[in-house]
Each structure stands twice: as C-alpha cells, then as structure tokens.
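#help-structures

NK: newbie question. if I give both the sequence and a SMILES, will the prediction place the ligand too? trying with zinc ion
OV: yes, paste both and it writes out the complex. here, I ran yours:
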Amino acid sequence: MHEKLKGIETTRGQFAREIDAVDSPGGLEQLRVRYLGRKGLIANLFKQIGGLDPEIRGEFGKALNAFKQEATERVERAERELAERETLAGVDPTLPPRPRNQGAYHPLTLVEREVKRIFSKMGFAIVRGPEIEDVWHNFDALNTPHWHPSRDDTDTLYIEGDDNLLLRTETSPVQIRTMQRQKPPIRIVAPGRVFRNDKPDPTHSPMFTQVEGLYVDRGVTFADLKGTVLQFYRHLLGWRISTRFRPHFFPFTEPSAEVDVSCPFCAGSGCRICKQSGWIEVGGSGMVDPNVLEIVDIDPEIYTGWAFGLGIERMAMLLYGVDDIRLFYENDIRFLAQFGGRR
Amino acid sequence: MKVSINWLREFVEFDESAEQVGDILTRLNFECESIEPVRRYVAGVKVGRILESRPHPNADKLLLAKVDVGGDVLPIVCGAPNCREGLIVPVATPGTRLGGFTVEERKLRGELSRGMILSEREIGISDDHSGVLELDESFAVGRAFDSVLPADDTVLEFEVTVNRPDVLSQLGMARELAAYWNRPLRRPSFDVEELPDRRAEDEMSVEIAAAEQGPRYVARKVTGVTVGPSPLWMKARLHSIGQRPISNVVDITNYLLFELGHPLHAFDAEHVRDGRIIVRMAEEGERFVTLDDRERSLLASDLMIADPEKGIALAGVMGGANSEVSELTNDVIIEAAYFDPPTVRATAKRLALSSEASRRFERGSDPAMPPYAAARCAEMYRRFTGARVLAGHVDAYPNPIDPPLIRYRPGRAKLVLGFDVPAGTAAGVFRALEMDVEEDRDSLAVTAPSFRPDLEREVDLIEEVARHVGYEQVPVAEESRVVLSAADPEIERVIDTALDTMVALGFGEVVNSAMTSAEDHDAFAGGLAPPRIHKPINPEMNVYRASLIPGLLRVLEHNVNRGLEDVFLCEVGQVGGRGWFGIEEEQRVHLGFVAVGSLRPPAYDREPEMLDLPDLKRIVIDIARGLTLDIPERFSYDVPDNLLLGISVTSNDADSRAIAGLLKEEVAERFGLDRPVYVGEADLERWVRPHAGDLRRPGIIGGYQPFSRFPASVRDAAFVVPFAVAAEQVREIISEHADELLEHITLFDLYQGRPLGEHERSLAFRFVFRAEDRTLTDDEIDPRLRAIVDAVQSLPGVRLRGD
Ligand SMILES: [Zn+2]
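OV: that's the protein plus ligand as structure tokens.
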C-alpha cells in the first residue's frame, strides 16, 4: 500500500479508538472539532491531495471521502447515544413492582376444581342440586330408615314452617334427582355444600362441602369401585397412595365401606397427621343399595352401581396443612391470600 | 360400645393381643376408637383383718389400726370412717405400687404406719372412695389379692353402626371374632337351680293385649332377695366398661345387658297386683311416674307393662317408681321381653328417655333371647343375692317371629363384588355367623338368625360374605370401560368462568355459611325473605340466605377492621327465598361482590384510583364478556332503596339480571363500615346463554364475523352539555342519527370547569367511520357527521364546543 494511503488508515484507527472512549458531550465535541473541524485532521488530509501523484490521487480521494462520511455518522450516533443515556439517568430499573389488587381463589374452590378435573378425566359429568331439599330426596329415596337418628332435628336442620324441607345433609339427593331424570349408564359427580346440626369447633362445621361420585351401569362391581377410588386418590394425593376399605353402614349402599388412604405425609409409617396409624379416613363408599335403584325405577337385577364421597374441607386441610376447619369460613384475607390465584 | 378383653375371653378362646382384636373388628365393620389399659392395683395387696382400731392420738380424723395380713400384724394409720375392728379388708403392704406412688413404711403424725387399707377406687374397681372396701368372710386372711381379681384388663371402644344391635354386647362381639377365627363360640352355660315345690306359673301370669307392639314377654320369679353389694369381679367388670356398680339386684340386670345385649327389668313382686302382668297400650293421657320420680303423660301409642290396677313400667324405656326394687324387696319378678322397635323408639324419643336398654330395643333386640336371658338372670340372683328361683317361667309369645329365609346366588354375589366367592366359602361364613344354610343346586337357602334384624335380602348376605372374606380380597379393577359422554350442565361453566373473571379483576373469593342471620338481611335491604331455619344452631344462623351480600359485608367488616384499605371480595353460592331482586324464587346460584378502596391501589409514584360507578359497569361487562354473552349496551339506573346510586342490568335476552352500586351510608354503617362500599349481585342462572345447552358444544359460543379490511376515518367532536342532559342521552341520539358507516363512538374526554358554565360539562366523542367494501371519502363522511352534530345540538342546552 502506498505510504499516503497508510496515513489515512492510521488516522482512521485512531479515530475509532477515541470515539469509543468518549463519555460526555464535551468530549465528543472536542473529538469532532479535532477530526471534522475546518482545521481538523481530515481537512488537513484533503489538503494533501493537490501534491499527490496523479496515479494514486483518485484512490486517496475515495478512501478519504469514505473515512469522512464514516466519521460523521459515528459522531452523530454517539450524540444520540449520549442523549439517551442522559434521559435514562433518572430511571431506576430496580424499583419494586407497583401493587395491584390481587385476586385469589378460595382454597375450597381450588380443591373442588382439582377434584372436578380428575372426575372429568374419568368421564364423569358434574351435576348440582338444591341446598334446600325435601325429605323424600334427602332421606326416603336414599333408603334411610324412618328411625334413623340422622332424621332427627338434633342432627338435621329443617326449614321453619315446612317439615318436608331441610338443608340437605348430603349431596346424595343429587344422585336421586339424576337417576329420576336419566337411565343408566350414569356417571356423575355432585359437589356442593351440605349442612349438619353441629356446633362449630376445629374439626366440625355446620356447613361443609361434599363431593359424591355415582356410577350405575350393567356389570358395575365393588372391584370397579375399588379401582376408581384408588385412581382418584392417586391423582389427588400422589402416585404412592394406597387405599383400604373397611366395612361400615350407610343406608344408601350395601355393601358399604369407609375408605382410608395411606398417609401421604409419612408414606404409611406413622406420623402426627395420621395419628401414628399410617392411614387417614377420607370418606364413605359402597354399592348402591337395590332399594335405591328400585325407588328410581332402575332394575337392580340388571344394573348395579357404586357411589363414593369425600369432604372437600378434609382434603383441603390435608393438602394445605390447615388445622382448624373454621378458618375456611372466617374469610380473613391473611388466610385467603396464602392460596394465591392458582386455579 | 366398650368391650373388655377378659370378658370376651369367656366366650371365645384367643391369644391375640387387644390391638389385633381391635384391627379385626375394625375390618369387620366396627371401628375401634380407642384401646385403654385397665389398671388394677392388686399386686402386693393382701386380704387382712382389722384386729383393733382406735383414734389417732394426734389427729381427729385419723384412726390407728392393727391389721392381721396372715402371719404379720401391721400397724396402719387409716382415715376411712368405716375402719373398724373385725372388718376384712384389702391391705397394700409396703412396696406395693398404687397408681402414681409406692406404699411405704412411714410415720403419720408421729405414729408408725406400715401399709394402707384400700378403698374400691384405690384398687381400681369403682369410683367409690367413701371408705375402705369391706370384704366378706369368703376372703381368707393372708390371701394375695391378685388371686381374687385379675391384675389388668384392656378395654376397647368400638363405633357400632345403627344397623347392628346384635353386637351391643360382649357376646355379640365375641360371635364376630369366633366367626372370623373359625373358633367355637361358648355361650354362658349354666343350670338354674330351681325350687322343686314352687312353680312360677302358679304365682304369676302374663297376658298380652297388644301383640303387635309387645310380641313376646317372659317372666321369672325369685324369692328371698337380699340387697347388698355385688361381688368384686362383677363390680370390676362393670367399672371397666364405664358402668357404676350400685347393688347386686341392679348390677345383675346391668351386667347381663352388656354381656348378652338383652335388657332385663326387675319388679318388686309385692307391687305387682296378683302377680298378673298385662302388656297393653297406655290410655291417652294416662299418668305414670317413672323410676326417676317424674310424672309422665302418656299417649295411646305408648306400650305399658301393667298389673290389673295400674301401669308398672313403660315398656323398654323405663320402669315405674311404684314397683321399683328396694332394700325392702323380698320377691322379684324378672322381665325378659321383645318389644316392637318403632314403638319403643317413639316413646323414648318423645319423653327424651334414651337409655342403654331403650337403645337396644329401638334397634331390635333378639326375640329368641328372653327365656335364656331370664333364666341366666334368675340363676345369678340365686348366686349373688341369696334368692331362690321358682321353677319354670311364664312365656307369652302369641305370634312367633320367623326369621326370613333368603336365597343367595353366588352368581349375583359375583355381579356385585366383581369376583367369585365359592358357594362353600359363603356357606361357611353364614354358618359361622349362626345362620341356617341349605345348599340347593345353584343357590343357598339361608335363614337369618333371630338376633340379626339387618339381614333381610340377598344383598345383605352378599355384604356378610364381603365383610368376612375381607374387603381387601375384592380385586382392584383396572379402569378399562369406555368413557361415557359427559357434558356438564352449562351452569357449571358459568360458575367457573364468572369466578375466573372476578379473580382476574382482583377480587378475592370467600366462602360464607349459607346459614346467616335474619337481622343481617334486614340491615342490608328491606323486603328480603330468607327461608327461616327451625331450631337454628345459634341466632346468627337463623335463616338460609336470600342474598350473598349480607355475609360478604360481614367479611368486609372483619377485614377492614384489621386495617386493610382495598378489599375486593366475591362469592359464588346458592340462595333461596325472596332476595334483592324482589322476586320469590327457587334456589339459584348467585355471584355476589363487595368492594372498598381503590381499583388501582396507590404506588410510590401514583395516586390511588378509587372505585366508582363506571368501574362497576366495566366489572359487569367483563363478567358478561367472560361468559361470551352479549355485552349489555344499556344499564338501568333504577335500583333498590339501599343504594345511593347504581345500575341494574337487563341484557338483550331480557332475562339476565344483575344489580350493582354504591351502598347508602346508613346501610354501610350497620355493617360497621365507615367508607364508600360498592356491592353487586348477579343471578348466574340467568346468565346462562339461552339454548346454549342445546348446541351440544359446551364452551364454544358465538361465531366469527367478517371484518372490514379498509381504513377507518376518524372525526372528533366535543359538546358542551348541561348537567340535566345525561351522557347516555347524547350517545343515544348519536346512535339514532348514524347509519351503518359509523363503526363506533367513544367518549374520550370529559371536562368540567372554566370556561364552561357552573352546571355544564364538555363531552368529547370520537367517531370512527368505516365501510366494508371501500375507503370512505370526506364527501361521504362530512354530511353524516354534520347530521349527528345537528341532532346532538337539538338537545336542550347542548352546543358544539368551540363554536
Ligand atoms: Zn402419617
């Protein structure tokens, strides 16, 4: 390369280093004057053109013009960058997020939705029914003997002025209503609030939330019940859960069973939550009593069915470690806010 | 139901631990609730005789006794008032452990004491601590007490389901265990030692005048009863299962109640006129004084035990004061009967006289049991009260009750249980449970035992098989069935979506009791009519809610009182009766909300934006949008009296309904709230899109509308509007005078103040014109805008701003 062209390259390299180092508008102005000013380095280089060999004059002029244009653009860009930096100086990106009213689901809703989701996956339709029920749907049709203590007003809350109306004690009447409307196959799950004449204490609430599943079809057996209940609790509580069925008496079902799940907290070895037993009682179940099927005109010689139920509060207490059922109904935001907006 | 391990062992042989027994019975339907050791302090205790008892020289209430414990004579300081010379007593010698301490030789008020004379409570056989236990001559002095009473026992408590009266006894529980283990059940066996020359039937008769309510009545008679304490072992057993020993005559019937599960009653024979017992219905209004000395008024539906002159007992419920056994009693008539369960239940319930006996009769006692129970009772009277037993009994049983014959098909059992139980296995279970079984070719003919009122149908037998084979033997089916179509009702989606919208808007969901107070309903709004609850749990829960808002306001109060400023709460739940919408309704699902404070809370660089009515409108619209409903175009401002101002929504389908607004100050104050409170309630069932259920495509509602791809032309115009003209009026007149080229209008600026008049404001609208098929020209737009502006200016007092 010609000596003179090398001179342009040297100046260009020097400019590039200097402009990268510029950090103030004053410094940039000095730089601009030094290179691009009327008496600046680039103007000086232009003055040399007259004294050059004609054979390199063209090449020199071209290279110098390119450098001048580049230098001008770099200075303009640096001006913009410095101006932006100026405006950002008042902005602090570490400021905290601004507050907003944070919506939240009630923990009972979160658990109920989880339960509904699992039942939906298993092909159950969700059905609801009235909280104020009649005696026939709540007791008679469920095969509750006339002498059964659950019918007493010490156990059940009746509506004043009508002996026939009560606050339902189970969601099972929804099953009756469904079977009156629809014939097998039936797969439904009925969530809802139920009521008992209980004084509130850490483990009792006069209102609580129940979910009951019902499956009626040809060839539905106790073995199916056990299979479905196991699947359900594995989905809800984890895949290591096992279930245990103990005989019990419910008017609505026969054979009837209480369902225990192996304690999810200690894997069955015994802890405070399962009272060292390794098992936690979670609900009732059984094969729908033939009397119930007959009441709704379903032939028990052709169809069989199972039902099982659980308490949402009980599940929520287990899943979230809540030790007093009354917290769910006190609705203190310090409690509710802990469950967040998760659906 | 409490069960003693020692007691059970009389009826079935076992080495299994109490824990194992608890587990087995739990698996058989009887949930074990507790296992408690019964501690008796008998090791180191000896039978002694008080040789001498004199006052302690240094203490008024203490005595100084010399007690012969067989070889050794111990000086003992004793505080019991009955400590007297000649008594045979239990004595704890030094080194004996009693409860929390060890008996030691020591000086009491200066006198040496080398042991302790014990009360029943100190030994652990009753709660009696009134004096030292007085033993009879059958206790040989010097004998170790642990050969008299077993040292320890274990008592298990079980939950017994209401269908199983047969296990409300030691024998019943033993029967279940024997069947489970396949070991023999040993019923108590005995011979009654009877008087050869006096026959019960010569001195007594039973006449049944109400055979349906009193199907069977057996009576026995004993003579020469001496009332006194029961034997120690009997006291100990009763005490271990939580019963208080009283006297031999009372304790024997009580003991048999818990042993056999059959209630018995003892009459003083002297007060049964002519020895004639009549089982009859009470007369309407008949007066009768029961054992507890209370006079009862009876109904014709109450069953009485009577003599020819008077009632002597309320059958199965309580005896009469007039025939009660007392210290003076010589002869006793023992009643062992079977009464109709509903009859006993109705009487016991009406008179609130529930007892261990009535509990068993109510659920169904064993109609075959009375002769056996009466004989056992008579024999125990003979042994423990010194009485003699008249020969035979009187048994009135006009219409014997036949236990049902039930057909059991193994194939049916498989259909219910999901696995095969061989017929032989089932027959084994039935026989172990004392049923009669005859094997047919493809079924079993099973006769239920008389003590099992719960066995009536085939499915009852299937349950017995499942119970005794074990629920754990039922296989776990793999889920392999085809999933059925299962469309949820539309309301389910509405509930979830409405709640999702509220939470996204910043509302926190609450769950309130549906039982709330009538007072709160009245405080919230006039004219609400919530269904009232009969016998409410407490006055705060005396109605079933007709509106969600009273409960929400209480939660608001609770949280505001805890210092929170911005509280936005919502709830979804059922309501009934006449609510805020003023209509008497079936139960419906409502959404309610309450809010105080700012929609956008203040931040370090921002003022709060307090909630107001336009925000409420936005909330209502957001709910509708979430449900993909037609967005309400119009709000009605006609709202209930308890709101200062608000909106109600009657959407395009004319039926949707919601009310929202600002609560009047006086209403808020009734709920302890001293700041603006916004409330709203919507009937979600009316927000279910009509006919959505018929579309059979849940969750997908509405459809695509083509939109114009041509540019819009935008024009602005501001109007000065007097307060008397509402913004909505201006909007309406614009809509009336626009054609389809006006795509939409927005109110983009609202101004009040100078230079406008005092009762004026400026409303600035943005008009967006667009055609579907072309770019609009000024020639098309200008006349349309002019027509609109002219129309708006025709409103009284309105003028175009800037003119
Ligand atoms: Zn555990």
